[in-house]
Structures are given as structure tokens and as C-alpha cells.
Amino acid sequence: MSAVFTGIGVAAPTGIGTEEHWAATLAGRCAIDRITAFDPASYPVRLAGETRGFDPAEHMGRKLRNQTDHMTHLAVAGAGMALADAGVDLESVGEFERGVVAANSSGGVAFGQRELQKLWSHGPAHVSAYMSVAWFYAATAGQLSIRHGLRGPCMVTASEQAGGLDAVGHARRQVRRGTRLVLTGGTDASVSPVGLSFEIATGLLSTEPAPDRAFVPFDARARGYVPGDGGAILVMEDEAAARERGAPRIYGRLAGYAATFDPPDPRAPARRAPFDPPSAPAAPRLRRAAEKALADAGLAPDDIGAVFADAYGVPELDLAESRAVEAVFGPGGVPVTAPKTLTGRLSAGGSALDLATALLALRDGVIPPTANVDRLAPGVTVDLVREPRPAPLRAVLVLARGYGGFNAAAVVTR
Prior knowledge:
Blueprint: E1 3-12, E2 15-16, H1 18-27, E3 32-34, E4 47-49, H2 62-67, H3 70-86, E5 98-103, H4 109-122, H5 131-134, H6 139-148, E6 154-157, H7 163-176, E7 181-189, H8 193-200, E8 229-238, H9 239-245, E9 252-261, H10 284-297, E10 306-308, H11 315-329, E11 335-337, H12 348-364, E12 366-367, E13 383-384, E14 389-390, E15 395-402, E16 406-413
Parallel strand pairs: 5-6, 5-7, 10-11, 10-15, 11-13
Antiparallel strand pairs: 1-2, 1-8, 1-9, 3-4, 7-8, 9-16, 12-14, 15-16
InterPro entries: Beta-ketoacyl_synthase, Ketoacyl_synth_C, Ketoacyl_synth_N, PKS_Beta-ketoAc_synthase_dom, Thiolase-like
Family: Belongs to the thiolase-like superfamily. Beta-ketoacyl-ACP synthases family.
Organism: Streptomonospora nanhaiensis
């Protein structure tokens, strides 16, 4: 049973709406800038990729806005756009034959911080009753289920940047078990005082103040990543059911998926990244995830037209990913791109957005560029795409790594 993507909804720093995002991506318009959600002057990291111009009132009523966090606002907007794009009448799909598998990593940190500040300043009577659920990772999946009557499987994946790919992998499993339609993908919104503090504590964020130099994965100047908010929601359907209902378009098929895990080094210092690559410089488990995804798709490395890299922006992690790609495809054996240089890393929303962008690349036959990278770091051997590159793409590999040791890989085909 084949699982295909029939709708895409994007709410990202590069645009609210799929075509706006795609146009900005192809043009290489960097959306990283000084944080506006709060005053970052006292923080060592002052840049982020924010969904500027996003108005939740255009996508949902006041009641739902007040009950939920920004992460859920982004997902509700993305889901509405994806369903409209898919041209599906949900009433024609049995309520137990439609489900949702969404990814989230940071939870509703902005909502939670606001309510805790009310508790501290004014007392418990001023705290919203929705504090009990709005902060939770599964709030987005639950709200999408309620809003669209998705009474089939309802799940959340929480594996940070890998979560978006893990979500679509689990969604495909549900389609294969008989669910006709699944909303999937992921969004995150960690650009808040508490959320930023959590990420600063990892020691992996870039403190470079210039937006065009702050996040440059694979570059000799790379010193860390920039955070961001946003993501993408996609409509996945059983291919036969999609064709039977006359779906306006099929963007592509999830042909392969795999996940692996890098356990933390117990000898590592407590504040060291739990998957710091000196203990595994060739990233063997990321390589294994890529190989298993290719095997799941029944494809050889030569069948892949492009790789959408995880692209951490941390020198050791970039080198490890380069070596993993080289081990699968050979030195410079496949074009590699990292359009997230325009947005920053969006946690669970990042790989979902990469997957959506990969589907658009398949649709239009062009590999989007990696912005702002000037000189590859020593040892990095990937064929990094720095300008839009036309290509007759038939299959694309998307890679993702989540903080804590999560690896995921997905193959999408025409």
C-alpha cells in the first residue's frame, strides 16, 4: 500500500504559504534576523528565524488562539492550508479512517512562561486553566484531531529535529494499516526567553551577530546554529484512495524511511552535547539511517538526485554528516543542499519543512540553494548546491538529526 503526499501547508520564516516559502527559498532570501518576540539584548544569542507577518487570527478564532501556544497556531494554519491544497472533503472520509501524527519538541514554552509569570505576580486565580494542556508536546496533535474530526490514530513524535521525519514515517505505518488520510509533519516555536535559554545551555548556538554569517553549515566559518520557529503540515493519503477521489495533485510518494539512535557517551562531561561526534566522527548511525531508508525504498545511491542535509552548523557535526554522505554516495557523488540556512533550525518543524521543500523540488525539477556558505570547511567533501540547480529529480533523500542522538532519513519519489 503506497502512501503519497497530496497537500502541503507551510508556516515558516521564509513565508506563510507554500508558494511564498518556495519563492523565497529559490531566491535565497535569508529570514534570519534580530529577535522581535522579546528583547534579546541580555542574551548571547540575539538572532532567530521567526515567522514574521504570521497572524493567527487569519487561521482560527479567538477562543482557540487563547487556549493554545504559538506552536499550535502554526500547525493549525499549516493544516488548513494543506487540506485546502489537497482539495479533500473530510466528510467523504470515515471519521475513524482519518488521523494525525504531528511532531513537536519544545512544547508550548511561551504559553507556559506567560502563565507562570501570572502565577508569580498575581496568584493562582490568574492562571489559565489551559496551562495544563497548552504547554504539552501533544497539544498540537490533539487540537488538529478535534478541529478536523480526526478520530483515527492520533500521535506525537518528540525527537527534536528528527521528529518531522519520524512523524511521516509513523503516518505511513498508519496508512498501511488502513487509515485513508493522515495529517502529518511538525511545527515548533521555541523563540521565547525560556525556549532560547534551553537551547543556549546546549552550547551549540551561534553567537555571531551578523544574520548572513550566523548560520553557515559546512562552511569554514561555522560556529553553531541559529534557532527558529515554524514548520510544515502535509496531507498523506493512501495512493489508491487519493486517485479514486480525484486528488488535484500528488506531490510525491514516501518511498523509504528509517531511524537510528546514537546513545550518549557516558564518559562525556555533563555539559557536552550528548551526541558530540568525537566519539563517532564518521556518524555511522546517520549513515545507517540513510542506507536503511534507501533499502526500504528499493533504491540504490545512484537513484538519488539530491540530499537535503541536516546541516547543524557545528563544525564537528557538519564534518560527521559530510563523511556519512560520502560513505553512502562517494566524494561529491550527489548534490547536497541545506535550505534551512534561510530559516535557522526549527526543531521538529525543520525536517518537516525540509520534506515539504524536497517535494517542491521534485515537482519543479530544481534543487534549492544553500545560502551564505562561501568556503567549505577542511574535510567537507559534499557537492554543496549554492545556486538553484535544475535537475531531472526522481528521488530525494532528506536527513535529520535530533538533539539527544536521534537520526532519521526519508526518501521521497515522484
